Amino acid sequence: MTGGRTRSATEVAIEAIVYRTPRGDAVAGSLSFERGQILALVTAPQSAAEISAHLHLPLGVARVLVGDLVDEGFLALNTRSATGRPDLRLLEGCSMASEPSDMVVTDDLGPGSASAPMPVKIVVAGGFAVGKTRFVGSISEIEPLTTEAALTRVSEGVDDTSKVSTKTTTTVAMDFGRLTLGEDLILYLFGTPGQDRFWFMWDDLVRGAIGAVVLIDTRRLEDCFPAVDYFEEHQIPFVVGMNCFDGEMTHDPDDVREALAVSPDTPVLTLDARERESTRNALLELVQHALVRATA
Ligand SMILES: Nc1nc2c(ncn2[C@@H]2O[C@H](COP(=O)(O)OP(=O)(O)O)[C@@H](O)[C@H]2O)c(=O)[nH]1
Ligand SMILES: [Mg+2]
């Protein structure tokens, strides 16, 4: 499908918004196989992650094919990105997100912006079964899609002197969801894969994200330590969401903050990942926190 290559000249971020060029419109009916399917799908701008999920293509493959089509001039990427730079519009978008029909974003974003909305990325992390999938699903306007990332790792042989490398390929299901915050602003939520052996995917997921929500189950707090460590080390703003599995709040946020040894300004809140309002509040807290951090 990708001619054995793993990279096309154009690198495609998972949240990059892909849209069709006039040249792409012209050839849409004539390309075959996955290339044709991608062009047919992208009648409306969407992210590489969505393309992967809709076409049941491993994420890595979808990104390479999209990159090729960009190189050929059939697709284009929105290169403007809100990632890493939360602004007030995002906060406003999040506050209004309960009434999608009322949302209007009037700011003139300048040339080149008309074709595709700007993606904003937030990562949802935590240990196993803390509610990541529920969290993403409760707020996403699209059916929660999972996509498979085909992964090839080269691991060094056990015997140092042999310098033998072995390749293993594995797949992982990833949660992601979408929330339109305005006609030109789309929030993408990406859930981190729970298992330790997928740690190396985090850099890709987290690159450019404005922040993260770390979900915790207070009965097994230690499960979130790796996520907290990761975000602190990479200086990604995050909020901690205590998921109320027993239906009532049994822990004081200050106690949890202390147990996690996170900074005093890190928001720790209670939530129910199954409730849209609750999820939205957590996202709002995060955007607010990220804004404060960015302007500090
Ligand atoms: N009571 C309660 N159950 C939840 C909540 N969030 C998730 N669950 C349940 O906990 C289980 C694990 O949730 P899931 O989202 O699959 O966890 P993940 O492994 O982090 O993706 C599922 O059965 C959910 O329905 C919550 O806020 N409260
Ligand atoms: Mg899950």
SSE layout and pairing:
Blueprint: E1 17-20, H1 22-27, H2 33-41, E2 46-47, H3 48-54, H4 59-71, E3 75-77, H5 88-96, E4 118-126, H6 132-139, E5 145-156, E6 165-182, E7 185-191, H7 202-206, E8 211-216, H8 225-233, E9 238-243, H9 253-260, E10 268-271, H10 276-295
Helix pairs in contact: 3-4, 5-10, 6-10
The chain binds guanosine-5'-diphosphate and magnesium ion.
Give a written overview of the molecule.
With 296 residues, this protein is an alpha/beta fold. The chain is built from ten helices and ten strands. The strands form two sheets. The protein has a seven-stranded mixed β-sheet, with helices on both faces. Strands 2-1-3 form a three-stranded antiparallel β-sheet. A hairpin with an 8-residue loop joins strand 5 and strand 6 (165-182). The radius of gyration is 20 Å and the shape is elongated. The chain starts with 16 loop residues before the first strand and ends with a helix. The chain binds guanosine-5'-diphosphate and magnesium ion.
